[in-house]
Amino acid sequence: MMVVAAYALAVLLPVLGFFWIPSGPGHGRVFDVGRAAGMAGFAILMMQAVLAARFKFTEKPFGFDMVIRFHQAMAALALLLLAFHPFLLAVGGAGWDLVTSFDVSGGILVGRVALGVLIVNVGVSIFRERLNLEFEKWRVLHGVLGVLLLVTIFAHGWAVGYDLTHLFYQVLWIAFLVLAVLVFLYHRFVRPAILARRPWRVTEVEEVVPKVWTLGMSPPEGHSAYDYLPGQFHFLTFRRGRDLPVEEHHFTISSSPTEDGQVASTIKESGDFTATIGATRVGDAVAVLGPFGRFSTALHPEDRKILFIAGGIGITPIRSMLRYMADRREDRDVGLLFGNVTESAIAFRQELEALTEGQCPKLRLVHILSEPGEDWTGPTGFVDQEAIKTHCADVGERSVYLCGPGPMSHMVRSALESLGVPSQRLREEKFSF
Ligand SMILES: Cc1cc2nc3c(=O)[nH]c(=O)nc-3n(C[C@H](O)[C@H](O)[C@H](O)COP(=O)(O)OP(=O)(O)OC[C@H]3O[C@@H](n4cnc5c(N)ncnc54)[C@H](O)[C@@H]3O)c2cc1C
Where do the domains of the chain lie, and which CATH numbers do they carry? Predict the structure, then answer.
């Protein structure tokens, strides 16, 4: 709650001028709202760097995906406020030249550039896939445009801001800029450099099923692995040499905190970067940043009856949670509906089947294949409403943990809604944002 209060205070602090500094002759309420919109938009944009920087104090209470979604929503709100800002000032008495004329001060022109940069940055982020822009290129562009935005919006406010003649606002404006730039530099350059200087090492490379690899990783000598909850994820940046790409990607920790020594991720070859994962060798360096996420049964001891629904590689966090429950002999009643395309693609099959023999947790496992071979006698098709109803009649009494590809998750979400699972009892990990 402290984080929410601190954020709200930071964003609303500049708006105080609305009450405190008079708007002057000829300017009325609408002008003041325009001032407040500009100042709140400025503060929101300055705080965006903090939201994106993966600090534990923002991530831990809410979860990484919620913080990123909030970052996206606040960008949209800032865009709205800053788009209305000049119109409200114009209507409020500053005159329409502010919006329509090019014969205005340099400070106003810089403000227009800032608004243009904001529109481009938000637009490119929303339409990245339609623009065929690779994630890594988008990330660089997002950062460059972000810094340009911070600088131009600061310069605009400083040059023409109605309230910036007051010392309080000057100090506040400089503090915001310094905070945003320092956080950005730390997140993008300093922390990665620190992690790269004391890398973990790959200690195990195993192909668990075709095109799916488990990589074990150990911290540098003298350091211990971090504490994590089953189901959490981390960011990995492999530095393998041999012309292999150096990119940071999220991967679930597929090992359980109850396993000593190494931390593991299980990764499916699915795109440009993951296609190279099998080329990783024991001894390769990897920078590890984590753990993150709130998709964990460990955070919900009240969930006594659970249904896990996994699709393909979405089994990784569930494998971690099941292993953790088994090692701790947790007395929970668990169902697992595990959808795969073919039998040979079922990751962790033997291990999961072995877990069904224990009593704590009491696990019931159902494999569902969408393209079964001729000798498959189990259920076929997709994990849809019918399958959930057939294989887990008491789903309405369970907490559901869902992790799978986008289309499957979408279908399962609406099926669960129809089957009466309240949204508070649906916990989901998405493998993309
Ligand atoms: C919380 C979380 C946990 C995950 N856990 C696992 C796991 O345990 N095992 C597993 O195999 N996969 C996991 N993924 C998915 C994995 O991160 C992506 O498959 C991988 O990043 C795709 O990269 P690519 O270059 O191979 O694929 P591409 O086909 O190039 O990219 C596919 C999509 O992945 C996203 N993406 C690409 N590069 C990055 C990047 N550097 N950072 C963030 N997103 C990117 C983009 O949305 C892109 O459109 C997880 C994802 C998330 C968000």
Answer: 2-196 (1.20.120.1770), 200-292 (2.40.30.10), 297-429 (3.40.50.80)
pTM over 0.85: yes
What is the residue-averaged pLDDT of the chain?
A: 94
**Model confidence pLDDT, tens digit, residues 204-222:** 999 999 999 999 999 998 8
Band of pLDDT at residue 433, cut at 50, 70 and 90: low
For tokens 């623009």, name the residue: 131
Beta strand spans in 176-327 (E): 200-209, 212-218, 233-239, 248-252, 263-268, 285-292, 305-311
Residue 365 phi/psi, 5° resolution?
Answer: -115, 130
Q: How close is the Cα of 278 to the center of ligand 1, in Å?
A: 16
Atom of ligand 1 nearest to the CA of 277: 26
Task: Write the residue with the smallest CA distance to atom 2 of ligand 1.
Answer: 431
Report residues whose beta carbon is within 6 angstroms of any ligand 1 atom: 129, 135-136, 233, 247-252, 265-268, 270-274, 313, 316, 429, 431-432
Smallest Cα–Cα separation from 75: which of 125, 7, 138? 125
Q: What is the predicted pLDDT for the residue at 46?
A: 96
Ligand 1 pocket: which of 124, 247, 274 to mutate (most atoms <8 Å of CB)?
274
Distance, CA of 433 to CA of 430 (rounded, Å): 7
How close is the Cα of 194 to the center of ligand 1, in Å? 23
Question: How does pLDDT run across 170-195, given as a tens digit for each residue?
Answer: 999 999 999 999 999 999 999 999 99
